[in-house]
Amino acid sequence: MSLARKLALLVAVPLVAVVGFAALALVTSVGQAVDSGRLADEVALARTAGVLTRDLHRERLASLAMLQNPPTDDQRAEFRRLSGETDAHAAGYRVRRAELSAVPAHFAEVLARIDTALEDLPGLREQVLSGEHANLSAITFRYRIIAADLATFRERVSAGAPAELTGDLRAAAQLSRITEYIGLQQIAVLRAAADPYLTPAMNDEVQSARAGVVDAAYAFSQGAPPAWRGWYDRARVGENGTAVQLMDDSVARTQPGQKVTLDTAAWTTAMNAHLDRLGAVEQRVDDAVVASVEDYRDAQLLRTVIQAGAVVATLAAAVAIAIWLGAPMIRGLRQLRGAAHSAAYESLPAAVFALRKRNSLGKATPKEYADAAGDAVVVRGTDEIAQVGKAVNELNHSAIHLAAQQAAMRDQVDSMFVALARRAERLTSALISQVDLTERGEQDPDRLAALFTLDHLATRMRRTNNSLLILGGEGSARVRKEPMSCHDVLKAAVSQIARYQQVDVHSEIDQQNLDLVVAAEMTDHLAHLFAELIDNATAFSAPNARVAVVAAPSGNGAVVTVTDKGLGLTPEKLAAARARLADPDQDFGAVRAMGLAVVGRIASWYGIDIEIGSAPRQGTVVKVGLPARVFTRRTDFDWFHGQAKAAAPSTIATAPSPSSAPSAGADQRDSAKISGVMTAFARGIGAHRTANGKPDRPTPDLVERS
């Protein structure tokens, strides 16, 4: 049987079974079961919230009695007793609240307000008991807010319920609203009866509570089952209900400005009894809602279990067929996958990475190197899997062959760079030597200035030659014998650029630690690195803009900052520059962007950290972190013999150049020579050149001439 038929038979049965049963039935049933379980927890919490609402009303009523008149000991004891009952039910509420596996967004904010209000209850009660800073309106309002949030939570539970349960949940919430509005009416009437006359505001509060009762009762009657409406109607009738109705009508007939004539004790007794009967109805309704939700949850769970069983049976049949037909094929595919994965992510990247080194091929040709790498996949058989394995081997061989060809081409290009740079270096050295000879015997200021210009151009040509050597993986054969101060290295770097007049150099290292100098074997490469960075900064700055170069100590090393106010870099160009610095060996555009490639290679040789920060039209800041290995101390160097002394290790490391770094060239001139040349220049021709308006000559580049 061909691989195509095996795959078709292997995929067809599980696809039909899983998609047909699981996707259409099981997923829906599981979701409904989970939702019904969560709804059951929410309804249980809502029932506890209803009990807590009634407790808060009784506590609020007791606080009203204490705040309207000086409280008695019995009233205080009664308030504490009611507070204890509220706390007990609040503890049950918190337990139910913690059992919620997830809090839906439509009432998460309400629950958060309720949690905060319950935490603030002890402080509210303390105000009631002490009477200090207790305002009757503020106290009752805070109780009202808590009760309103509890009622709001009960209403919002129905938002996530299925259609068959939504009506019952809304009716239960409206019944809770009825009891809350009746409680507000009771409090409002008691407050109105305590005043000398009925104020318009108090009358509005009483009428608002009565209207709330009517609206909530109408909403309840519209959505509640007939049995629930019967429970509610029976709770309203009777001798006690008649007394409440009569007193309520008496208060309703009282006009603003008149005294409310009411037996407050009888009103309180009748209203409490009325609320107790409504509370019993609310409890029965909540129990019925909880039972309905639990029945719905159980039905959903049973349906889910049945559908899951059918899905499992179908999947079992599909798995059996798949194992019977697909085990050998799967085994071969797994072996092929493992071998291809190993080749793609391990052996092939390792082989390509090894080719990044220079002369990595040795004497082998690219084809010989690729053949020696061997096959990535062991091929067995002649079926489609074996054919794929052969194709993977061919791809692996072609990739390694191509990488080897590129490595060979890169080695040839590097050799060409080195050969051209060596030849140009000899010519440049000869040119500089000839210019030096001419300078020594020249007295005419104009011609001497022209010779100095040629000297500077030759110095810049030498930097270009050294850049080619570095790109080719080599350095100058000459090695400097003496270390230099950080300031001299930076000045040497400035002398190698075209627009040296724009650069300001400041070295805090030489000011704070005169004994700290740059190791001799690293001075030339560091001067070259900074010359490239400073040259780039001046090239993208306005002719009159200044470029600041500051060297500051940092731990056992130093940080050199190059700051310009030029054009800056766009985010894309900044990312490209950082990538070129991070991986200079893979910079195939090194000749087009020689500066950054050279900087990256020198930095990799000596472990130098370079950070570039830039923004369009805001300039660029380059921070160069020099490690301790770059520096040595003057006391560790024998200036008479020009060699390092054998001394005890200091706090500043004096490690030699890394083995990966080629020998640095001696591209700095002797400091004494510079001082003499500059002094003679200032005395003999400085005034003449200033009068002619010609630019100052560049500072010599501190090169030791061979």
Automatic annotation (TrEMBL):
Keyword Ribosomal protein among record annotations: no
Biased composition (Low complexity): 648-666
The Histidine kinase domain, residue ranges: 419-630
Segments traversing the membrane: 305-327
SUPFAM superfamilies membership: ATPase domain of HSP90 chaperone/DNA topoisomerase II/histidine kinase
Compositionally biased spans, kind Basic and acidic residues: 694-706
UniProt entry tagged with the keyword rRNA processing: no
Swiss-Prot/TrEMBL catalytic activity: ATP + protein L-histidine = ADP + protein N-phospho-L-histidine
Keywords: Kinase, Membrane, Phosphoprotein, Transferase, Transmembrane, Transmembrane helix, Two-component regulatory system
Region (Disordered): 648-672, 685-706
Enzyme Commission identifier(s): 2.7.13.3
Pfam family, one: HATPase_c
Top-level enzyme category: transferase
Name of the protein: histidine kinase
